Amino acid sequence: MRLRFAPSPTGFLHIGNARTAILNHLIAKKYGAALVLRIEDTDMERSSRESEESILKDLTWLGVRWHEGPDRGGEYGPYRQSERFDIYREYSERLLAGGKAYHCFCTAGELDEMRKASAETGSYEYSGRCRDLSEEEKKAFLAEGRKPTVRFRVPEGETVIVDDIIKGRVVFSSENIGGDFIIVRSDGVPVYNYIVIIDDALMKITHVVRGEDHLSNTPKQVLIARALGLPVPQYAHLSLVMGDDRKKLSKRHGITSVDMYRREGYLPESLLNYLAMLGWAAEGGVEIMPEDEIAAQIEIGKLAKSAAVFDFQKLRWMNGSYIRQYPQERLLELIEPYINEAGFDTKSVERPWLSEVVALLKGYCETLPDIQKLIGMFMADVNEPDAESDALLRQENAKAVIREARMLFEGEITAENFFSGLGDRIKAGTGLKGKDLFHSMRALLTGRLKGPELDRALPLIGFERCRKRVEYAYRKYAQ
Ligand code: GLU
Fold this sequence. Notes:
Elements: E1 2-5, H1 15-31, E2 34-37, H2 49-62, H3 85-97, E3 101-104, H4 108-121, H5 135-143, E4 149-152, E5 159-164, E6 168-173, E7 182-184, H6 192-202, E8 207-211, H7 218-228, E9 234-238, E10 241-242, H8 258-263, H9 268-277, H10 291-297, E11 308-309, H11 312-325, H12 328-341, H13 351-361, H14 376-379, H15 387-393, H16 396-410, H17 422-430, H18 434-446, H19 454-461, H20 463-478
Parallel strand pairs: 1-2, 8-9, 10-11
Antiparallel strand pairs: 3-4, 4-7, 5-6
Helix pairs in contact: 1-10, 6-7, 9-11, 12-13, 15-18, 16-17, 16-18, 16-20
The chain binds glutamic acid.
The site of glutamic acid (GLU) has 7 residues, from loops.
């Protein structure tokens, strides 16, 4: 079994294409198949090496592994279509010689005219007017300086049956594919529908797993294969990924490039998990599953036939779950830049302390940068109370707590004894208890009303910081 993922390097890796890559990767993994990465870069104006590099980088980050490709070679290379023009030329010559393709001299202007004329009658189909030009006519056109395209002579009355592993049987008629289509443009560049099937055949691809948007291209590709005597792979067309309004997923719905997800602090494992499960349900409705288990359970035939809706909230939730389970050392490494970005120098503190802080805060993070809203609780000397805490600290009960705490920090509370019984002492001094006591203490000592339990947080915040915070709050609210 041989699979391929064939991105066009015309921008960043889109989330829908990433899903196609991931499913190919997982299916390859399940069956021990080879995965080929082929770069479809014949659209010279829109393709770029930077885009190719960023796509490879994003795929690698996601954990997609390929066995053959432009970066690592392989038996069936080259793996960039732009490096295979000699191969395609040979095939077009063969088609031309056998009368299965012909030179078309219609200019862009003439084709436009035909298109306009047909707009009134219905759908456009190339009239085939260059199908049977005589040698003299061809010579005359060449003498005029016209540069011909190569058109495929679509056989009449032919049926193409695609037994798609996901969609089931789809029957096409050669009458409905828009007439003889161009396979080589006048500048000599061959077009996608023509070369894709040549490459699939030469690269010995057995299964093509790709987006549903290519289903309508499949009959053209199969007809080319027939004309050239090339084998046709098995097809599996994946349902499209939609936004919640059932329109094709686009920037309007939210982040759509893998690169942005990385920068927004998503973990590759959760993105892979989420995208793999989009449009497919595992046994027992389990949603969070490591890659190996997904690979064990996945079946091409069980992938959803209908569109999958991308749920940004669910991905966030899943990411949070991955953050909680992540190996601690690795999480620390990934989250550190975000802490620094928030203005705290992670090099200025002890590593084991920082690790404990992150372990305590990770339960409150759905993405890595979520730590930025929380880290000040531990790393700032005084963590400026947020609006909620500020409002609370202005109330009488809270002021009593502040005054009592200040007195304690100036007297009996020391670095040695402050972990134990700070609450009890403030309670004894103020007569407050429950919420009145603990919300005020939390606002006073952390500057936030939400966050980890005080019993666990205070030892990490430490005596010195708490003392400074109490002093600060005293001056600001209770003096
Ligand atoms: N290069 C095509 C694309 O990026 C994929 C072609 C295919 O999978 O057949 O949409």
